[in-house]
Amino acid sequence: MLRGAGAYDHYIPSIVKSVTSKEEFLTAYTPYQAEMSQGVLQSIFEYQTMICELTGMDVANASVYDGATAAAEAAAMCRDRKRSVTLISAAAHPDTINTVRTYCYGTGHELRVVPLKDGKTDIDALREMLTPEVSGVYIQQPNFYGLLEDARELGEAVHEAGAMYIMGCNPISLGILKTPAACGADIAVGEGQPLGLPMGFGGPYLGFMATPKKHMRKLPGRIVGETADSAGERCYVLSLQAREQHIRREKASSNICSNEALCALTAAVYMAAMGPKGIAEAARQCMAKAHYLSRELTKLEGVEPVYPGTFFHEFCTTLPKRDEVLKAMEDAGILGGLPLSDGTVLWCATEKASKTEMDRAVSIVKEVLSK
Question: What pTM was estimated for this model as a whole?
Answer without folding.
Answer: 0.94
